[in-house]
Amino acid sequence: MLSIPLNAVPSPKLSVQAPRSVVIIRPHHFTPNEATAADNAFQTCPLTGTRETIADAAHREATGVAAALEHAGITVHLFEDEGTETPDSVFPNNWFSTHTGGHVALYPMFSPSRRRERRHDVIEMLKQRYRVQDIIDYSGLEQDSVYLEGTGAMVLDHIERVAYAARSNRTNEVALERFCTHFNFEPVVFDAADAAGRPIYHTNVLMCIGTDFCLIGLDTLREPRRRAEIAGRLAETGRTVIDLSHEQIGDFAGNAIELHGRQGRILALSARAARALRPDQIAALERSVSILPLDVPTIEMAGGSVRCMLAGIHLSPRG
């Protein structure tokens, strides 16, 4: 694990942007999903190891993430996945999200192999531990080939009520409009591509919005005018806009999440992502958060990183 200290942050105040609790799914039979590789350029093939050693490594990594977050004062709801038909279950943020006021959303998934990830026991836990008023289920849109993969497809500004979304196979504008109408967000849609010109499959690999900052790969936004509009809009909120290069995006530096721990707000991201950040970028972040790097190299082979692993809980606890 990268040795960046968990320092006290300047502001310990709670923020609607930074949840204090998360859901983690610990996989027992992890493997990069061949069914999702066609449009996820961030996936890589294992160079060494058997299926068993890869699965064991991913299990250890998920265990380590849960332990590190708990040590930082984050409430972790850890669920096991002992099945063999859900290779991407370690990324639960794609199939559900939670929202202030007691609202939960379930999402339509692009790959049929991922639709089995939706779990009744996770939703029941939320109902038992938190104040849940309603559950809005969009998963039926799969029958019409309409998809919106949760907070992978959308990066939500909970403070300004804006949903940023890059167009892709996994982000349908009809579903996005429906979500925004139900949950009172304004949709901001754009096209994004990697350095090779391939569309970026999920918005949360190129963008992370915190309370006082935004990490974003501005060069991934294809249209210059749209790029300037979005950069300006983020700056107008008073946030520090930290521009990430294509190389940093490839190292998952945009796939991070702000959480609220025992000593204030933290930024959870992978050790690989933390190493990719420049000293000036780290200094800008540490004005409002402590950086918590987490080792997940095996899980990153599936094309997602720490943000994808954590489903933040924006609900009020019971009692």
TrEMBL record:
<protein>
    <submittedName>
        <fullName>Citrulline utilization hydrolase CtlX</fullName>
    </submittedName>
</protein>
<dbReference type="InterPro" id="IPR014541">
    <property type="entry name" value="Amdntrnsf_FN0238"/>
</dbReference>
<dbReference type="GO" id="GO:0016787">
    <property type="term" value="F:hydrolase activity"/>
</dbReference>
<dbReference type="Pfam" id="PF19420">
    <property type="entry name" value="DDAH_eukar"/>
</dbReference>
<keyword id="KW-0378">Hydrolase</keyword>
